[in-house]
């Protein structure tokens, strides 16, 4: 993504709690998340690409109970960050995802969150099926 082409979301420098949320229409059993970073050539230096370092990704069920609490451990800047959900959490239906920036770089007053694309991969929540996951399973489903 490229901020100048308006293909990325970007929090303001004055935002003291920079974050981004997505809510699913129906709960989903998610097994992987992908976050696309800003392209390196979109920055005057590498600093804007470092803003995703050590991001926090949290997923929640429909009662707002935490399912996954992940913090990026990498020290290197990546173009695509992959968060793989541990197997024992993959059947828990996710209703909301919260992403938070934690790194303040150079002259930033607060951390800035820039995401150029977000993808979530998964299946229908247990007990549902169909392209839109809106069909209820019978006992043999």
Protein model, in words:
The protein is mainly β and 141 residues long. It has a single domain (3-136), classed as Jelly Rolls, CATH 2.60.120. The chain has strands at residues 9-10, 19-36, 56-60, 66-71, 80-84, 94-100, 114-115, 117-124, 128-129, 135-136. It is elongated, with a radius of gyration of 17 Å.
Q: What are the key terms here?
A:
141 residues; mainly beta; Jelly Rolls; six-stranded antiparallel β-sheet; two-stranded antiparallel sheet; 0% helix; Galactose-bd-like_sf; Fucolectin tachylectin-4 pentraxin-1 domain-containing protein
- Name the overall outline: elongated
Query: Total helix count?
Result: 0
- Compute the gyration radius: what is it? 17 Å
- Give the terminus-to-terminus CA distance: 40 Å
Q: In the CATH hierarchy, what is the class?
A: Mainly Beta
Low-pLDDT windows of residues? none
Strand content range = 35-45%
CATH topology: Jelly Rolls
How confident is the prediction overall: mean pLDDT? Answer: 89
CATH superfamily grouping: Galactose-binding domain-like
Helix content: under 10%
Major sheet description: 6 strands, antiparallel
Question: What layout of secondary structure does this protein have?
Answer:
Blueprint: E1 9-10, E2 19-36, E3 56-60, E4 66-71, E5 80-84, E6 94-100, E7 114-115, E8 117-124, E9 128-129, E10 135-136
Please outline what is shown here.
The protein has no helices and ten strands.
């Amino acid at each position: 993504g490229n901020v100048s082409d308006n293909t990325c979301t970007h929090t303001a420098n004055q935002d003291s709690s920079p974050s981004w949320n997505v809510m699913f229409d129906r709960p989903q059993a998610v097994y992987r998340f992908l976050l696309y970073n800003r392209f390196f050539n979109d920055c005057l230096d590498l600093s804007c690409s470092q803003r995703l370092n050590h991001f926090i990704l949290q997923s929640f069920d429909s009662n707002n109970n935490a399912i996954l609490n992940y913090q990026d451990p990498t020290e290197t800047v990546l173009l695509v960050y992959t968060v793989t959900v541990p197997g024992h959490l993959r059947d828990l239906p996710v209703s909301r995802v919260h992403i938070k920036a934690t790194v303040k770089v150079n002259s930033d007053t607060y951390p800035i969150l820039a995401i150029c694309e977000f993808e979530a991969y998964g299946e229908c929540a247990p007990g549902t099926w169909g392209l839109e996951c809106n069909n209820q399973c019978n006992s043999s489903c």
